[in-house]
Amino acid sequence: MTVQQAFEQHVMHTYARFSVVFERGEGCYLENSDGRRYLDFVAGIATCVLGHAHPVLSAAIAEQARTLIHVSNLYYTPQQARLAEWLTAHSAADRVFFCNSGAEANEGAIKLARKYGRTVLGIAEPQIISAHQSFHGRTMATVTATGQPKYQKHFHPLVPGFVHVPYNDFEALRAQVTDATAAVLIEPIQGEGGVVPGDVECFQKLRRFCSERRILLMLDEVQTGMGRTGRLFGYEHLGIEPDVFTLAKALGGGVPIGALCAKEAFAIFEPGDHASTFGGNPLACAAALAVCQTLEAELLVDNARERGAQLAAGLGRLVERFKPLVRTARGRGLMQGLVLSAPRAAEIVRQAMEQGLLVFSAGPEVIRFVPPLIVSAIEVDEALAILEGVFAQLPVTVTA
């Protein structure tokens, strides 16, 4: 039985998988079971910031596995302490809760907001505002917070207490605020919503408004955090500091870990309020600490900014050459999107893969690029050349 046959027979059909089996990787390249190499601009969905088989991360995982993998949060472990210390030293947060994923981190943020609303603001049924076209996870609470009905189909009744407003529209958000509003949960850049950067003026108005009304401002940095945008955190582009923010994906470089980060005044969880069996275990924290230290040692946030500018410029040239098929490019750092004039993203993703480049979509009209932060100028040029070849073979006329 082949790998694909085993999947078809034994794994739940929750993914429409591409017909490829990857067995190894190195740097920004993956190799399939036939030995073919692919330039990886998906990076495990913005996760493998150090690429594949990075020696520092691999060594940290191996060493920790030989020492201690898991003991639970009934006890202290040095790895969790050191990782929390690094994150708070490099961010607006004072305290961290560790979990296993972005959905769990956002679930924790939602619980924190509800406790804040009830115990601090005195709201009997606290409400949280999030944005249309947002994505916050697949648990029942986070899929309700997600402002995309396609992710909610078949899962009603949804969790009460959420209101959705247009992204980057402060006035629309303010109009939805009531005495029951406890928090706003929002992305600095919408990823699944089409790689839409947050508007600086809108977010600064939002920050002032939330402070005035004592509303918790919570930023979902699951995809933008850990250097992806050319800053360590996405909120740094916006000139604000959140009360709470969430991390996952890149934090572990591929090892599952999530983090709920909060300023001291809002870190109001007490023993019994929230927990995670695996969250922050020694293996995950050793991996994440290796990622954090390598981001610094190899100046990878700077590289994300420089290579992001190179990628954005190249995408801009594609826009000019292939109009009207391509409408615009947008993003920050190494989180870029190419916006098409017709819903052909899936077709272009498949053709790029056939030519040895892995990219993926953010909706039917947006191609997303989130390569490892170690990506080189040569590799960015290689990706752009492959993409240019793909577009050159497509009809330029756009059909409705």
Give an account of the 3D structure.
It is a single chain. This protein is an alpha/beta fold and 400 residues long. It folds into two domains: 3-53 and 299-392, Aspartate Aminotransferase, domain 1; 56-297, Aspartate Aminotransferase, domain 2. It has helices at residues 3-10, 43-46, 55-67, 78-89, 102-119, 140-145, 170-176, 200-213, 282-297, 300-321, 345-354, 377-392; strands at 22-26, 29-32, 37-40, 95-99, 127-131, 162-165, 181-186, 189-190, 196-197, 216-220, 244-247, 258-262, 326-332, 335-340, 357-358, 360-361, 366-369. A seven-stranded mixed β-sheet has the order 4-12-11-10-7-5-6, sandwiched between helices. A four-stranded mixed β-sheet has the order 1-2-3-15.
Which properties best describe this structure?
globular, 400 residues, 7-stranded mixed sheet, alpha/beta, Aspartate Aminotransferase, domain 1, Aspartate Aminotransferase, domain 2, 4-stranded mixed sheet
Q: Determine the CATH superfamily of the largest domain.
A: Type I PLP-dependent aspartate aminotransferase-like (Major domain)
Based on CA atoms alone, the radius of gyration comes out at 21 Å
Give the distance, in angstroms, between the N- and C-terminal Cα atoms.
43 Å
The spatial strand order of the largest sheet comes to 4-12-11-10-7-5-6
Q: Tally the helices: what do you get?
A: 12
Instruction: Supply the number of structural domains.
Output: 2
CATH architecture of the largest domain: 3-Layer(aba) Sandwich
Main beta-sheet annotation: 7 strands, mixed
Helix content: 25-40%
Strand content: 15-25%
Class from secondary-structure proportions: alpha/beta
Order of helices and strands: HEEEHHHEHEHEHEEEHEEEHHEEHEEEH
What's the average pLDDT?
97
Instruction: Report the count of strand segments.
Output: 17
Name the shape in a single word: globular
CATH topology of the largest domain: Aspartate Aminotransferase, domain 2
